[in-house]
Amino acid sequence: MPEHHRWVGLLVFIILIAIAEIGTQTGFISNLTLPKPSDILISFGELYSSGLLWKHLLPSLSRLAVDSIVGISLGISVGIAIGLFSYVRAGLVPLVANDDGVCVVRRDEAAQTLKAAKERIKLEEEKHKRMANANWAWIYIICVRSLRKKA
Description:
Elements: H1 6-26, H2 37-50, H3 53-84, H4 86-96, H5 107-150
C-alpha cells in the first residue's frame, strides 16, 4: 500500500501558484487569462481591511450553496432512479461509468452493456423469486412445527 504524505498536496499547490505567478509576471500567461496570484492576494487584503469582503463574498457563497443543493439533489435523484428502475439503470449506467472508471460511451459498448444489464436484471429477478419461494417455505415449516407442538 502506498505511503501517505500530507505535505505533498501542499507542496504541489505552492508549486502551481508559483508557476502561475512566474507565468503572469513574465507575460507568458496573459493577465486577462489568469490574474497574478500576488494581485489577488493584495485585492483580498484590501477588501478585508475595508470590510467589503463579505459584501462581495456572500452572493458568491449563496450561489455556491444553492447550486450545490441542486446538484446534490439531482445526483441523488438520478442515483435512486438507477437503483430502483431497471430500464433507467440499463439506460444510464453506460453513460456514467464503466469498468475502468472512465466515463466514455461508445455505441457498440453501450449496446453490449445494455444487453448485459438486461441479462443481469433477469438473473437477479429469478434469484429474488427463488429466495422469496425459499422464505415462504421456511415460514411454512415454522408454522407447521409450531402447530404440531401445540397439538
